[in-house]
Write a structure and sequence with these properties.
alpha/beta, 503 residues, five-stranded parallel β-sheet, Rossmann fold, 39% helix
């Protein structure tokens, strides 16, 4: 069947489709990219580690040869086995829920999405394992039905082999579609290659999505739900070349991270700024920080109210000031506390006890706090806990933003003790610290403002500085979305399926 049998997707009208059904392929159709390797690589690294990613990378040439010289199905089976064999199903589901949506959402094909989003009933037919794509499709794109390849399992672990009828390609897609819809014929079928023509012919209308990866992806603001929370260590989508570079860089990057951490922990704080620059860590300071408090005067210390990007925020605040600023924390690993160059004080989440601790620390000098209670990677600010506003009028908002090119320095699902190492493993990580004006007395609680009014005002000021959006989401919302718990479990959490939160 020739490509010209079906018209191009650009010619498909999208008006008046609210009661119609659309069926679309995924790679190359719903997504601009035709290769599924980056998403398998994300599963391999985030659920299996660096050795699993290496195994997948070594197996990918074999998969490619089978794909072109034997069959599409054979090539995909190799990728599935190399990625999934032996992994816990719960870990795969967790990555599919918490990591992949961010990368999938940045690769939506504009013309396909125009047609797909206009229809009232949406179905995706894909050769990819259903377990890795279903969470994104249903939670963020409003897909009603996902028909994908089913992976075998044994005692909660994936075998790496495919269940019958096998990888969903060609006639198998058409059979799956007829089985799901019965005698009802979907109105629109969207595909990008000849193996999709079989299921497209089973629809009333069929349209081909041409291979044009250079088209601009759909803006994430146009998604039914914005992606506020996501997890995983990798910043960029791992193509085969990037996966290789990542594998080669990790041992080098770890040694470099140890050197950077040692410099921050062992050198006097006034020298840390220059040591970081010499070691490739960029620190940019904006605004006018307040001078240190004279302890002999009996004046209360300044409480720096920071937006929360990584657990290193107070350290880079201290670096920017050239003096160590103690920080109160909600939950950090013991390793992070040991290597920290500043004093950290754990809060108990008991309001009275925590308030007493913070007041005592302010009597001793300046203090840093991140009232969001947890980090957020996207351009959003989570709800600010209002307790800090009741404890002092000496409030200085600080807008923190960072830049990482290879690894994220935060995690909700992994071991938090590695967070500072992953941040410093980036080739040239950067932090921008912006000191805002001290809060006027008339905007504090002492002038009759409620603590919530003060907290919300500071949240808005920091958000405006960073061009971020304010939300009412909390730490519990984040951990429920990414890890299936409320974020207060000390032990390694047992991962459970959970819906990702959106606005």
């Amino acid at each position: 069947m020739a490509v010209t049998t079906f018209p191009m997707v650009e010619t498909c009208p999208s008006i008046g489709r609210e009661k119609q059904a659309v069926v679309a392929d995924m790679d190359g159709t719903l997504l601009r990219g035709r290769s599924s390797f980056p998403y398998f690589a994300l599963i391999a690294f985030e659920a299996g580690g660096i050795l699993r990613l290496l195994f997948l990378l070594l197996a990918s040439p074999l998969a490619g040869m089978l794909y072109y010289f034997v069959s599409e199905s054979a090539g995909i089976q190799v990728l599935i086995f190399a990625t999934f064999a032996g992994l816990k199903l719960s870990n795969i589901e967790s990555v599919g829920r918490a990591v992949l949506p961010k990368f999938y959402s940045e690769d939506l094909h504009p013309e396909t999405w125009r047609v797909f989003s206009s229809c009232g009933k949406r179905c995706v037919l894909t050769a990819n394992p259903r377990i890795m794509v279903e969470a994104f499709l249903k939670e963020f794109l409003g897909v009603d039905m996902v028909l994908g390849t089913e992976v075998g399992s044994y005692k909660g672990r994936a075998t790496g082999f495919v269940k019958k009828p096998g990888v969903l390609v060609g006639e198998r897609k058409a059979d799956a579609l007829r089985k799901a819809f019965g005698d009802v014929q979907p109105e629109i079928g969207l595909g990008d290659r000849h193996t999709d023509f079989a299921f497209m012919a089973s629809c009333k209308e069929g349209y081909v999505v041409p291979p044009k990866p250079e088209v601009e992806a759909v803006s994430t603001e146009k998604l039914p739900k914005p992606i506020i929370f996501h997890d995983g260590r990798l910043v960029q989508k791992p193509t085969p070349l990037l996966a290789l570079l990542t594998i080669l860089w990790i041992p080098i990057g770890f040694l470099l991270a140890c050197l950077r951490i040692a410099a921050g922990a062992l050198l006097p704080m006034p020298l840390v700024y220059y040591a970081f620059w010499a070691l490739g860590v960029r620190v940019y300071v904006k605004g006018h920080p307040p001078p240190p408090v004279n302890k002999s005067s009996g004046q209360s210390g300044v409480l720096f109210i920071c937006s929360h990007r990584t657990l290193l925020d107070p350290i880079f605040l201290s670096t920017a000031l050239g003096r160590p600023i103690p920080a109160v924390t909600y939950s950090v690993s013991r390793l992070s506390e040991i290597i920290s160059p500043i004093k950290t004080v754990r809060l108990t989440r008991d309001r009275a006890i925590d308030a007493s601790k913070i007041k005592k620390l302010l009597q001793e000098g300046d203090l840093a706090i991140c009232p969001e209670g947890t980090t957020c990677r996207e351009p959003f600010l989570l709800r600010f806990s209002a307790m800090f506003a009741e404890l002092t009028n000496e409030l200085v908002p600080v807008a923190m933003v960072n830049r990482m090119s290879m690894f994220h320095g935060t995690t909700a699902r992994g071991w938090k003790g590695m967070d500072p190492f992953f941040f410093f493993m980036n080739p040239s990580p950067a932090y921008e610290v912006t000191f805002l004006n001290k809060l006027p007395l008339e905007l504090t609680c002492s002038s009759g403002k409620s603590s919530h009014e003060v907290a919300n005002y500071i949240q808005r000021v920091i958000a405006a500085t960073l061009s971020y959006e304010c939300t009412t989401f909390t730490r519990k919302d984040k951990y429920k979305a990414l890890a299936g718990n409320d974020g207060t479990v000390v032990e390694k959490p047992k991962l459970k399926p959970s819906k990702v939160m959106g606005c």
